[in-house]
Amino acid sequence: MTEQEIKFKEKIKAIQDTMYVIGGKWKIVIILSIYNGNKRFNDIVASIPKITNRVLSKELKHLEENLLISRKVIDEYPVRIEYTLTEYCLSIDELAGPMEKWGKNHMKKISGK
Amino acid sequence: MTEQEIKFKEKIKAIQDTMYVIGGKWKIVIILSIYNGNKRFNDIVASIPKITNRVLSKELKHLEENLLISRKVIDEYPVRIEYTLTEYCLSIDELAGPMEKWGKNHMKKISGK
DNA sequence: TCATTAAGTATACTTTAGGATACAGGTATC
DNA sequence: GATACCTGTATCCTAAAGTATACTTAATGA
Predict the structure, then answer these.
(1) Strand D within 7 Å of which CB atoms in B 27-66?
(2) Chain A partners within 8 Å of B91 (Cβ)
(3) Which of A8, A23, A106 is the closest to B21 by Cβ?
(4) B61 by DSSP, 3-state: which?
(5) Cβ atoms B33, B47 nearer than 8 A
(6) Best interface-test mutation with A: which of B63, B99, B108 has the largest number of A CBs within 10 A?
(7) For residues B4 and A85, is the Cβ–Cβ distance under 8 A?
(8) Which nucleotides of C are covered by protein (CB under 7 A)?
(9) Could you list the residue range(s) of the whole structural domain that residue A20 is in?
């Protein structure tokens, strides 16, 4: 295997890993919702059109396992849960920004083709 | 709906569109392979570990429909097909670069947690 | 005539993602 | 005791993504 091939396979792995962590229809969207000030389960559900509670529940676990959000139990009257972004999660901005920009441009490109 | 909410929904849509076009396990990887000099179907299959020809075939069609690659029939003896990136496709670099970087860093983060 | 090569297609699967709906469990209020 | 609030879970289902393996078509040259 040439050096170029080795580098190519490393790139593949890194990109597929990123896709595993933040890929799919909802993950970045959920992060943005929390970033926008929604901390509680039902607020997040309400803020994202068409998401269901089952999907949100699963995705929140995935994001927590990957150190992107943290879950705090607040022991008041009906027990509240607060989701917050970790410091580390802010690095997602390096991806979300470009993705938003690219998506907007692509819509124009395709609709006017 | 507040202005902030409208902007949020636009962001969601743009990101979900991007995910639709370049999301999944293979699409960016295929683009990188062509970028690396592989033009022919079997070369691309060979360059990407674990991809199958059926999957590659489907993904190439998707990428062509989204104006990211072009398919040229070369009418020689066993008919050859050449895939090349479109000019427009180069804009993917704005996404692939950050994704590669983020993925590499994330691997470190998770393995050392 | 037979094998070879390139670029896929066909068929039949398995796995993962996502969706619809119902409701549980604890606590506080009426 | 009944009811409502909150954060989910349970169950069941559909659709999309991905996999495995064999086959097709057309031309060519041994």
Answers:
(1) 50-55, 59
(2) 102, 105
(3) A106
(4) helix
(5) yes
(6) B99
(7) no
(8) 5-12, 17-22, 26-29
(9) 3-111
CA–C1' distance A50–D1 (Å)? 37
DSSP letter for each residue of chain A: --HHHHHHHHHHHHHHHHHHHH-SSSHHHHHHHHHTT--SHHHHHHHSTT--HHHHHHHHHHHHHTTSEEEEEE-SSS-EEEEEE-TGGGGGHHHHHHHHHHHHHHHHHHHT-
Give yes or no for B57 touching A (CB within 8 A). no
State how far the Cα of B30 lies from the Cα of B44, in Å rounded to an integer: 7
* 113 residues of chain B, pLDDT tens digit each: 789 889 999 999 999 999 999 998 999 999 999 999 999 999 999 999 999 999 999 999 999 999 999 999 988 777 899 999 999 999 999 999 999 999 999 999 988 86
Query: What is the residue type of B77?
Result: Y
CATH of the domain at B8: 1.10.10.10
Task: Report how many domains make up chain B.
Answer: 1
